[in-house]
Amino acid sequence: MPTNAGFEYQRLEKEYPSARTFLEKIAILQKMLEVGPKHKGAEKLRNDIKKKIAKYKGLLDREKRLSKGGNRGGLSIKKEGAARIVLIGATNTGKSTLLSRITNAKPEIAEYEHTTRKPEIATMDYHGVMLQVIEMPAITKDYLEKEKGPAYLGVVRDSDLIVIVSRSRDDIKLIKEELEEAGIPFNGIIVNSMDNNVKERIWNKLGLIYVYTKSPGKNKDYPPIALNKKANVRDLALNVHKDFVRRFDYARVWGKSARFSGQRVGLNHILQEEDVIELHLK
Ligand SMILES: Nc1nc2c(ncn2[C@@H]2O[C@H](COP(=O)(O)OP(=O)(O)O)[C@@H](O)[C@H]2O)c(=O)[nH]1
Ligand SMILES: [Mg+2]
Prior knowledge:
Layout: H1 5-15, H2 22-35, H3 43-68, E1 84-88, H4 95-102, E2 120-126, E3 129-135, H5 149-157, E4 161-165, H6 169-181, E5 189-191, H7 198-206, E6 208-214, E7 225-228, H8 233-240, E8 248-254, E9 263-265, E10 276-281
Parallel strand pairs: 1-3, 1-4, 4-5, 6-10
Antiparallel strand pairs: 2-3, 6-7, 8-9, 8-10
Helix pairs in contact: 1-2, 2-3, 3-5
Bound molecules: guanosine-5'-diphosphate and magnesium ion.
Magnesium ion (MG) binds at residues 95-96, 107, 115-116, 135.
């Protein structure tokens, strides 16, 4: 064993729970085998690690296979809009109810279980910014072992925000356990289908702002443009046209970030939600 291997092993053990993907998990487990104890007494430990590696390799294969075929429940879902939000939860927790409240979709809402059998893709309009919202089929215990589990969890992993729709503590616990098992960190929000301000909570958690552009002498353009919080005029210019940073002369800003209406600013000026920006080019 190389020197410091004990420390290295402990470090890997600590790192392991934060591995996001099956690949990352496999990589860490393999390193653990490399640097971990190799004496007779450690045989069980090594076998456990090998079993885990085999399991995640199997799951990785299945996720790959399932996400290829276009005919397998629409799993290669194209990202649309400024962000992708997934609604997940146990069965009958109000996911479809919430989807119909915050998007244009008219999903089937029913008292019996597992009504939504494949991802239901919809669009949420937030002050003119379009966001993709996907209702996922109910997550059940040991979901990774279920036929579609790995592929559906792949869609969840690939999202910008996870919204757990819940009616009880028990179903939150189940969902969090299943996410953890799949190596998907939960950094989202937990809502009830009848909560009032879900759209605002989603938007705030995404960490986005929306701003308007305008041309001189005209009203502001619609729809607005979504940017990351703390975005500056350069980020906006890049978003509008890739040439606009090179051709940039100055901008005028109205709104919260401006010290006064129509303040003249440069590329590094930080924007705020609902600002109106006029880009002047050379
Ligand atoms: N008590 C209660 N019932 C709800 C709530 N949200 C939805 N429901 C009802 O629960 C059933 C399942 O709702 P649905 O939205 O289809 O749940 P999904 O399976 O998670 O998509 C329907 O009869 C809804 O009217 C809630 O927050 N509280
Ligand atoms: Mg449903």
